[in-house]
Specification:
There is one protein chain. Helix 3 (131-141) packs across helix 4 (196-208) and helix 5 (260-276) runs antiparallel to helix 6 (323-333). A hairpin with a 2-residue loop joins strand 10 (156-162) and strand 11. The chain is α+β, with helices and mostly antiparallel strands. It has helices at residues 8-19, 72-81, 131-141, 196-208, 260-276, 323-333; strands at 3-6, 33-39, 42-48, 52-58, 66-71, 88-93, 95-100, 103-107, 127-130, 156-162, 165-171, 175-181, 184-185, 192-195, 213-219, 222-227, 230-235, 256-259, 285-291, 294-299, 305-309, 317-322, 337-342, 347-351, 358-361. It folds into three domains: 3-107, DNA Polymerase III, subunit A, domain 2 (DNA Polymerase III, Chain A, domain 2), CATH 3.10.150.10; 127-246, DNA Polymerase III, Chain A, domain 2, CATH 3.10.150; 256-361, DNA Polymerase III, subunit A, domain 2 (DNA Polymerase III, Chain A, domain 2).
Amino acid sequence: MLNLEIAHDQLAAPLRRVAAVADPRSSVVAYGAIKLTVDEFGLSLTAANSTQLMVERIEVPDCGAGLVYVSAARLRDLVGSLDREQPVKIWEDGQIKIQSGRTRARLDRLESTGFPSSLSSYPSPQISTTTDEFARALGLIFSAVGTDRDRAIYGSACMFVNGFGLWLAAVDGTQGAIAYLKGKTAELFPDALIPRSTVSRVLALTKATPTTPLYIAVGQGLASFCGGNWVLTSRLAAIDFPDAGLWVAPAVAQPVVLASENLERILARIDAAIDLDHVKLKQRGAELSCLNGTMTVVGNRNVITDEMPVTMGVEPIKVGVNTRQLRHCLNAIGAEQVELHIGERAIRVCAAGEEYESYTLSPYRL
């Protein structure tokens, strides 16, 4: 029988992370449930949806043994409302009962029909890194991952290995990003196309559990991410990702090098002026003109004109950019000095001197 007592802070954070995977809107009732499993090792929290399965283990001594399914949303909200200074007691007595201090509550059991079973065996981990490093790489490419309404190829991130190491890449049709992941790769594996929902969930998990070893396994149409006490397993999108060379702009001999802070300040002023004019987001554009070591930035409809010094080659340059996308790039890269590699069909943005990680934007038609 389920019978355990656990500190509030020890339960609340893992419960929020696992409950976020549950899908109460699904026609499968079990997808809105969270499974509580207690054994000699402690308490395990499990939730699933049509794409993902997540398990988080909490070490709790003397918790008995048992298995129940309850509403993930109700349990999360209930525990979140309890006194953080009081331990939480959970036990079975016909219903699931919870007590914390003077507060008592009851939860109904849910049927387990349709709840996926945990995998009896996972692929052997091929990648060893840290949650900090993976969060940094995911954060760099996330804005280039399309929405769930886009084609699967645009609404996913690709994790792949080549002769140089491990990479993450994303492209949504108008912009792309590629990040180099610092870590140990044990062996080659097929390109893994990770759905946006999983990218978002893994990004949240790695940020919530920093400085933790992270092991990643790919195989059998699945990708498993194991960070400390949690494991998230996700289905992969069954589609081939395009060759990165088809959409990543090549480096040019003499890029435009500039201070990221100066360009961000100008673009922010342009965005503010455009917003005042009630211009649609898709019309957020600016023209960058580079000549004789000076970049002139002109906002769409001439709302603002400003200048800044740059380092450049001899040939003059003129190109249109989407202000919102370019600001996303600058913020994600986070470098004081950035390079703009401006080509006929694409603009590559990267930190000064960076060879691997970059953003790629389509030129904006003014």
